[in-house]
Every structure is written in C-alpha cells, then in structure tokens.
From TrEMBL:
Every Flavin reductase like domain range: 20-180
TM ranges: none
One Gene Ontology MF term: oxidoreductase activity
Pfam families: Flavin_Reduct
EC number: 1.5.1.-
Enzyme class: oxidoreductase
Keyword Lyase: no
Lineage top rank: taxon: Bacteria
Name this protein carries in UniProt: Flavin reductase family protein
C-alpha cells in the first residue's frame, strides 16, 4: 500500500471539489457527550458499512472540535434530518458558534444507550459506539457499531409544534445547497429491486 501523499495541482484540486459537490447526499447531525458537554456536527459524509455486524461510518475533519470530543467519548448519535431540520443543520455547521448551550435552540431528546442528543427534526436515529478509526488524511474515518436504531414511525411524538408535512421527507445536500426529494409515481420502490438490492 502506498501511503505517500501526492498533493493535487490547483486545477485538479478545484475539479476534485467540483466533482464531490455533485454527489447528492442526505444530511445528518452527529452528536456526542464528552466530559458532560454536548458536541455536535452537521455531516453529509455518512454511510452504512455492514449489516452484520451493524456498522456505519462518519468522516470527521481533524480541525473540527467535534473530532477530539467524539474520539474521547467513544459513543455518538446520528440524526438523519428531515426537510424541517434545515435550520438545525445550518446552525450546527456554523464554525465558531458557542459550545455551551449550542443545542438550546435545537429541539432534541436523549438517546437511551449513549445519552447523545438526537434531533427531533429527524426522520431516523442511530446510537453507536466507536468500532474502529482510520486515518483519512486531513479527516478521520470513524466507524461505529450500532447500539440502537429507530425511525420516525417508531418514535414517540415530542408534542412540539413542528411542520408535520415536512417531517417525513429527507433533507438533501447538493453543490453547497439544501434540496428536497421529488417523488415519481414510477419509483424504484414500485418498479422492482433497487440497484443496491440487486447486487446483494
């Protein structure tokens, strides 16, 4: 394995960023509690890894204060956001926001397994314990084993005055902008197995 670093020239680096920006993704907020303090980070670099054992990963910038907190804690939560969670995502992506009480303006509840904050404006939630970490250049790849999983239909309603018409739809991210899902009557779900299911 070649571990040498090969910096890209400026034009290729710009093209690399442009290519990554054209990969549409969902939006998550990853949270952890370290030394009694809540830490949170908006992340689109999140994905599943394995079904057995149940593993997911999130990629964390080494410069982010969340980086050391989640490594120290060893447990974390993931909230997959609904369209209604855009303001929460924007706030928790804002660099330099106060650490203390940063979740005061974000409706949330506590995960039973980890105590991590899980955002109420989510459509699904996971609680994880760190399985392994890997060097990812200027980021760390944090792989977590899932301790608990729930989706909105399984969760108790919080009683908050939230927009119920938007809570069931995912928040998307594309080219530095938030977006929404456009449903088609002829979706993959209705017409047959998805490409992922076909290759399992």
């Amino acid at each position: 394995m070649n571990s040498a670093s090969h910096p890209l020239d400026p034009a290729t680096s710009r093209a690399f960023r442009d290519v990554l920006g054209r990969f549409a993704s969902g939006v998550t907020v990853v949270t952890s509690v370290a030394d009694g303090v809540d830490h949170a980070m908006t992340a689109s670099a999140f994905t599943s890894v394995s079904l057995d054992p149940a593993l997911v990963l999130v990629v964390v910038d080494r410069r982010n204060r969340f980086h050391d907190a989640v490594l120290d804690s060893g447990t974390w939560g993931v909230s997959i956001l609904s369209e209604d969670g855009q303001d929460d995502a924007t706030w928790l992506a804002h660099r330099g926001r106060p650490l203390e009480d940063q979740l005061a303006r974000v409706p949330h509840h506590r995960g039973a397994e980890t105590g991590a904050a899980l955002l109420d404006r989510g459509i699904a939630w996971l609680e994880c314990t760190t399985w392994q970490t890997y060097d990812g250049g200027d980021h760390t790849i944090v792989v977590g084993q899932v301790l608990a999983a729930s989706v909105r239909s399984d969760a108790e309603q919080s009683g908050l005055d939230l927009d119920q018409t938007r809570l069931g739809e995912p928040l998307l991210y594309y080219r530095s902008h938030y977006g929404a899902l456009v449903r088609s009557p002829e979706s993959e779900k209705n017409s047959g197995p998805s490409p992922v299911e076909q290759h399992r």
